[in-house]
Amino acid sequence: MNEIALLIAATLSAGTVLAIAALGLLINERAGILNLGAEGMMLVAAIAGFATSVHTGNDWLAFGAGAIAGALMAAVFGLLVIWLNTNQYATGLALSLFGAGFSAFLGIRYTQEKLAQRPSFEVPLLADLPFVGPAFFKHHPMVYLTVLFVFALMWFLYRSRAGLVLRAVGESPESAHALGYPVRRIRLAAVMVGGALCGVAGAYLSVIYTPLWVEGMTAGKGWIALALTTFATWRPARVLLGAYLFGGVTMLQFHLQGEGVQIASQVLTMLPYIATIVVLVLISRNPAWIRANIPASIGKPFFPGS
Fold this sequence. Notes:
This is Inner-membrane translocator. The chain is mainly α. It is built from 13 helices and no strands.
């Protein structure tokens, strides 16, 4: 039972990285912008957060540095695709490639650095409960904040005026523009918020989840987060569920290796990516279902006055 509790705890921690990034991408896509640069933003934010933590010893400053790094990269992307109308797919891929190279360059001096011992976090009283304590109540506060953010985002998208405007921009920017809403500025704000969340995910990865810096340490998590938005049909609660599902598959490979299962380690490492491909294939078998949920203007440029 204790091993199962530890596996659940590891799943929640691993899923948090994916959930934060995917929720940021969901906000982008709800506004009609598809950003394929999540991997690059997460890598630059990871080294920004790690470097900040090395020099200050403060996790929250590290998260802030990661958020700023992600938002700045997203702002550049937004200016290119929203105002200069560059291709969203090509620009996002360029951002991802740039982030991988730039983070590797910045991180050269930090490859041997180690963070100070992190304080242990636990919810008083609840953490002492058998099984559920170690499984659910001994996590970094960011794990719980992510869950709360999902509910806040659900309220924002479906209950607030600003959220309804954001969705309108993603569905029909021409109609939103005709009603007097600044479509381009709304989209840029959504892109920057999404980038900031990808940045927080990157910082969480390098400071809390695996407290070290290694070149390319995201290992495809940005792409999995991107796939998660489709898997979740652009709904926050489903994003969280999907993130924990993929986090569980990731942790399962380590659990099986620890149990001495006679399967090649390379096959076990492939499990999260195989799961991603299988889910996307299953979803693509019903294109009508995707069309019913996908923001209508996603990936499409908008020209005011056209």
